[in-house]
Amino acid sequence: MPNIQVVDMQGKQVGTMELNDEIFAIEPNVAAMHLMVRSYLAAQRQGTQSALSRGMVRGGGRKIYRQKGTGNARHHGNRAPQFRHGGVVFAPQPRDYVINVPRKIKRLAMKSALSSKFAANEIVVVDQIKLAEAKTKYVAQMLKALESEKKTLLVVEQDQKDVVRASKNIPGVKDAYVNTINVYDLLNADKIVILRPVLTEKGYDGIADKRYIFEVAINANKTEIKKAVEACFPPVKVARVNTLRTIGKMKRQGRTQGRTAEVKKAYVILTEDSKPIEFFEGMV
For 113-117, 141-145, 219-223, 252-256, which range has the lowest pLDDT when averaged over its residues? Predict the structure, then answer.
């Protein structure tokens, strides 16, 4: 299995980490990545452009002058494109630009993008990110120490709102959660900075025993969580699901006092004969 260095916020090595060779060491499929990039860019288009053709413009039903004898060109109504207040030639209409991609191609493209970035030594794994304050200068100092000052994709946990807020003002830096990364952002970044405890430390240590921790919706019940895990990571089999709901912490910002968002975690245990979950298998 391929190994990667784990560094701290100052860029000093604090350990190593084994990666799955089925995700980070495959032969990149350029065609799959190209299709996913096309699909992503096409989905960014709103498709709401609209104009009126000559048949849609109101008026112009009467022939403006007789056919012959005037010396002018032959015309019918005055809503043709060459007239003022006329219609538009080949007028665009609202349409859908979505390019559908099969699920297997999505997974192949994600694995290909991660493998190509790992082969190019453009993935940086950080042990932990702790900021004294949610200030942009602290994130900028960290990225400078990690030699990631250009286009950088910062992948953090969902509870690290301060890191996301502090990185918003840095040009070229885009933040993402582990369940929101896509092939386009991976390929577009010069460096990918990933936080090591993606599933939290306790969840990361339990992978060997087929125990996983997921952050789920507040209103999700155990049956729904079980079905969702088995649907996202076939052919795994879930034996038991336990949930824990954590009330948000008290937080003050200026004169305003409130609570952070509530978090609900699901502790998923697989059956003994089940296949282990490949972490990036369900990513699109």
Answer: 252-256
Whether residues 184 and 214 fall in one domain:
no
SS3 for 105?
A: helix
Q: Report the candidate in 81, 73, 280 with the shortest Cα–Cα distance to residue 179.
A: 280
pLDDT, average across residues 243-249: 83
Q: Shortest CA distance to 127 belongs to which of 40, 55, 198, 34?
A: 198
- pLDDT tens per residue across span 51-68: 999 999 999 889 999 999
Residue 128 has pLDDT above 80, yes or no: yes
Residues 209 and 194 in one domain: no
CA distance 196 to 125: 6
- Supply the range of the domain harboring residue 253: 200-277
* Number of CB atoms found within 10 A of residue 106's CB: 19
On whether both 142 and 257 belong to a single domain, the answer is: no
Residues 260 and 165 in one domain: no
Helix (H) or strand (E) holding 228: helix 222-232
Structure tokens at 146: 């990690």
Q: What is the mean pLDDT of the chain?
A: 86
> Tokens at residue 223, please?
């049956």
Residue whose token pair is 């306790």: 202
Distance between CA 146 and CA 7 in Å, rounded? 9
The dihedrals phi and psi of 209, each to the nearest 5 degrees, come to: -95, 15
Tell me: the pLDDT tens digits for 198-226?
A: 533 444 455 556 788 888 888 899 999 99
CATH code of the domain containing 259: 3.30.70.330
What pairs with residue 269 in β-bridges?
211, 240
Q: Write the CA distances from 145 to 9, 11, 82, integer angstroms.
A: 7, 5, 62
For residue 251, the cross-strand partners are 258
- Asked if residue 197 has pLDDT above 80, the reply is no
SS3 106: helix
